[in-house]
Amino acid sequence: MALFCRGVPRLLVVAIALAGFCLLPPEAFSRGPNLCLWKALFHLGSCPACGSLHALAAFFHGRFVDALAFNHNVLVTGPGLIALAAKDVLNYVSKEAGARGVWK
């Protein structure tokens, strides 16, 4: 199983992220402080990643037009998260099935 940081399974991290994006509406991310490092360090109006959390939350709520309005990177990051989770699940299932001799 692919590991993330300090031995934490990547599937667990991706599953928590996907659950958060599915449970929290995009408006929930507007209530917190602005954590953009680019804006803080370089005093930029916006960076290429600004709006990504809002966009991913809108994407996983099926609000695709809103997601694109927040950040166009969601066209890659949304399906990418789904593909990463699917890959990890399939790897886990195939290892479990192989360990039990199901595929033999």
General description of the model:
The chain is an all-alpha fold and 104 residues long. It has one domain (10-100). The chain contains 5 helices and no strands. It has helices at 10-23, 37-42, 52-60, 64-70, 74-100. Helix 1 crosses helix 5 and helix 3 (52-60) runs antiparallel to helix 4. It is elongated and about 55 Å long. It starts with 9 loop residues before the first helix and ends with a helix. The model has no long low-confidence stretch (mean pLDDT 85).
Describe the structure concisely for a colleague.
With 104 residues, this protein is mainly α. Helices cover 61% and strands 0% of the residues.
Describe the secondary-structure layout.
Elements: H1 10-23, H2 37-42, H3 52-60, H4 64-70, H5 74-100
Helix pairs in contact: 1-3, 1-5, 3-4
Task: Provide tags for this entry.
5 helices; elongated
Rg on CA atoms, Å: 17 Å
Question: What string, H for helix and E for strand, traces the elements in order?
Answer: HHHHH
Write down the domain tally: 1
Please tell me what the overall shape is. Answer: elongated
The largest sheet, given as strand count, sense and whether it forms a barrel, is:
none
In total, the number of strands is 0
Mean pLDDT over all positions: 85
The low-pLDDT segments are none
The assigned structural class equals: mainly alpha
β-strand amount: under 5%
End-to-end gap: 21 Å
Helix percent band: 55-70%
Q: Count up the helices.
A: 5
